[in-house]
Design a protein that fits this description.
Two copies of one chain form a homodimer. By secondary structure, chain A is an alpha+beta fold. Chain A has seven helices and five strands, in the order H-E-E-H-H-E-H-E-H-H-E-H. Chains A and B meet through helix 1, helix 2, helix 3, helix 4 and strand 4 of A and helix 1, helix 2, helix 3, helix 4 and strand 4 of B.
């Protein structure tokens, strides 16, 4: 264990965010810590990499999993310069870290022009009523992938 | 415009999902279509790539953006073999496609052991009450990345 506090780690995530602005990225950074050691650092690369999913949290989860050779971050902590957006919240659920810490609430990001609130609201709407409407179509045999999956002996559940 | 229908595209997404199971991936597939042409195909690679964010929709959005050289999918349609999970829903909001179509509802995925419902429920909880609790810590100067961002003349808003 290092002697670094949660606040120290958050300050590092904020520094990653600040540095990223100079590198042409968005003002968001995150780090993953396990047993007091930083295992991954990442920043928002949405416009820099032409990747709308490249939020700092998604990037740092991918990087930490690569480093640790796992698809789940059990026992890890995620430190993010800002409150995770709904996409990142979803990514966090699938990654299963021990805990998440952040410094700027969504109202701080909103003042800078990053509006996550409308996404939270849309989650409460039925799929077809959303801004980007999702429609279910009936397709015969649509569950074929699941039947193949169920038939596999060596499938990894997650 | 090709003569392919929405159902044809969904059948292709389902085929991508089915083929992926044989390749060691999860039973999910998605494609992105623009003006009747498939611009990207992708499948779930979570366990195969050690990447909890590698759901079919996230992967196909990344691939389509790479192909099109953009960070938003305006005018595109996303066809997914199954209803997008909350993480993918968030990714879809940031990608801004014209519309989303899917074949299997979440109850079909649930029967196969993929439970998204608990994530939807957690979205309604306060950050600290969630399964992977998110805690805001007070850090002096936490908004420094946003101040740097605001001072940039060449920032790309998104």
């Amino acid at each position: 264990m290092s002697g670094r506090t949660k606040e120290d780690f958050l300050r590092e995530a904020i520094r990653v965010a600040s540095d990223n602005v100079a590198r042409g990225g968005g003002p968001f950074g995150a780090i993953v810590v396990r047993d007091g050691v930083v295992v991954a650092r990442a920043a928002n690369r949405v416009t820099a990499n032409n990747d709308p999913t490249a939020h700092a949290e998604v990037e740092v989860i991918r990087e930490a999993c690569r480093t640790l050779g796992t698809f789940q971050l059990e026992g890890c902590e995620i430190y993010s310069s800002s409150e995770p957006c709904p996409m990142c919240l979803g990514a966090i659920y699938w990654a299963r870290p021990k805990a998440v810490y952040y410094a700027n609430g969504r109202e701080v990001a909103l003042k800078a022009g990053f509006d996550d609130d409308h996404i939270y609201e849309e989650f409460l709407l039925a799929p077809q009523e959303r801004r980007y409407p999702a429609t279910r179509l009936e397709i015969e045999g649509a569950d074929e992938p699941f039947r193949r999956w169920a038939a596999k002996d060596d499938r990894v559940e997650y």
